[in-house]
Amino acid sequence: MADGSSLRSKLAASLPKSQRFVVHHLSTPPTPSPALYSAPPSRKPEKATCESHFLSVTIRHNDKRIQIFALEVLIYTTQDLITLFVSKADSTGYLHLLKLPKGTASPLRTISSVFIAHLVDNRKRHDRQLVVSLFARSQNQYLFPGSIENPGKHVLDDRGLIKWWCRVLEPVLQSCESKTDTPELDRWLKKEPSHITSKVYLRVPSCDLHETRSFFPLHVRRNPALLAKWHPNKDPLRDLAGYALTAPERCLIPRFPDDPKSRFVDELDDELTEPPPSSQTQESPSKGKQPGKWKSVRSLDQFWELMAFRQECSSGRLVGFLWAVFTPQQVADRLKESGPLPFAERVIKRPHASDGPGTFAPVVQPPMTPPAEQLVDPYLPDADDQGFSPETVARAIGPPT
After folding, report:
1. Any residues with CB less than 8 A from the CB of 75 and at least 6 apart, and which?
2. Are 252 and 37 in contact (CB under 8 A)?
3. Where are the beta strands (DSSP E) in 36-128?
4. Which of 173, 203, 213, 312 is the most exposed place for a label (fewest CB within 10 A)?
5. Can 3 be counted among the known catalytic residues?
6. Catalytic residue chosen out of the listed positions 3, 121, 259, 269
7. Which of 175, 235, 155 is nearest to 203 (CA)?
8. In 3-state terms, what secondary structure has residue 365?
9. Which segments of the chain have a pLDDT < 50?
10. 42-99 pLDDT, tens per residue?
11. How far apart are CA 59 and CA 67, in angstroms?
């Protein structure tokens, strides 16, 4: 199919030409899912759909197929936001069987960048933001039980893993900014393709601004134009949630599966109190407790300060929270003029081909259905692209140890 062929061609243009990789891309159709964000008091949760994309990579060695890498991405879609959550990633340590030349860029990093960029390219829309979100924490094994016993598996330490994921996302930004977002729709509307801007945000609890900036790719730190797109010790949570500035903090943090932020939010929700029954009490409204507000956390900055003391962030290893945000010009102009719209006013619809001019109808995003198997026969990367060793483990998220 066209979608699968596109992914195949992108991988073929990026991986070592002298080797053959077998790639399986499995996806589920979009299905209704629990709301990604908690709704403010007296509001209904925003409807969302979720689809799963799983990428499996194997190699051929002595007439046998050997798995080397797997990556799962969950895609959540709401009325005005598309979220790609990198849920799982792990390697087996058998990539060394290819005996790639020393200094060759890590195929695992290349595969991760190409796959994420492919999903972004097929999901971005002119009328809504898109964000790639992940949690980087070093762990011996995750998807492949027992793989740590393989002496060929190289597990990155905490700092190395955060840098690894920053290097994964950097080419995704370059790839998506160099293309238009909805060429077919733009031609239908007879309008110029809209420009897309991208930004990366990184938070590493317990690290200051200088330390966090050190995780960025070296060429990004040396280029002021590129560095302007990377924001250390910041996050886009308030902007992405789309609620008013007065919305409780719990409404600004997405609830991903197996995510430390979500676990902390669940614990803080035990502090929630209902609004005081005004008809049965003489207590002053100023003394009443605000509904939907936590007692101990009153701001996002305070939330991140306390995250640094959580077991998952204070067990002697650093963890990184990464976001890559893609904003079409149409959305940027709207946010610049009026800021995030209140939940009740968020009605974003797209032109439907079957409707006449001036008529609009919602568009349902079809699932991506790649072929079961893709044989890749690519060429060598640029000689100056020096990445981590081929045995690098790419691990995004997992249960606490």
Report:
1. 30, 50, 51, 52, 53, 82, 83, 84, 85, 119, 123
2. yes
3. 48-61, 64-77, 81-91
4. 213
5. no
6. 259
7. 235
8. coil
9. 1-4, 181-182, 184-191, 275-288, 342-367, 369-401
10. 788 889 999 999 999 999 988 899 999 999 999 999 988 999 999 999 999 999 999 8
11. 6
128 three-state secondary structure: strand
DSSP state of 226: H
Q: How far apart are CA 319 and CA 204, in angstroms?
A: 6
The Cα 136–Cα 139 span in angstroms is 9
Q: Using N-to-C axis directions, what is the helix angle for 2-12 and 107-123, rounded to 10°?
A: 150
Query: Can you read off the two tokens belonging to residue 323?
Result: 């976001």
Helix (H, G, I), strand (E, B) or coil at 170: helix
Which residue type does 24 have? H
pLDDT tens digit sequence for 339-367:
555 444 443 333 333 333 333 334 444 44
What distance in Å separates the CA atoms of residue 206 and residue 285, rounded to the nearest whole number?
A: 38
pLDDT of residue 395: 37
Question: What is the C-alpha separation between 192 and 190, in angstroms, rounded?
Answer: 7
Q: Which amino acid is at 143?
A: L
Cβ neighbours of 129 (radius 10 Å): 22
**Sequence-separated (6 or more) residues with CB below 8 Å from residue 279:** none
Neighbours of 360 (CB within 10 A): 11
Lookup: tokens for 345: 């006013």
One-letter amino acid identity for 139?
A: Q
Could you tell me which of 276, 247, 278 has the C-alpha nearest to residue 341?
A: 247
Of 77, 108, 88, nearest to 11 by C-alpha is: 108
Q: Which residues pair with 27 in a beta bridge?
A: 53
Rounded-to-5 percentages of helix, strand, coil across the chain: 30, 20, 45
User: pTM of the full predicted structure?
Assistant: 0.78
Residue 232 and residue 202 in contact, taking contact as beta carbons nearer than 8 Å: yes
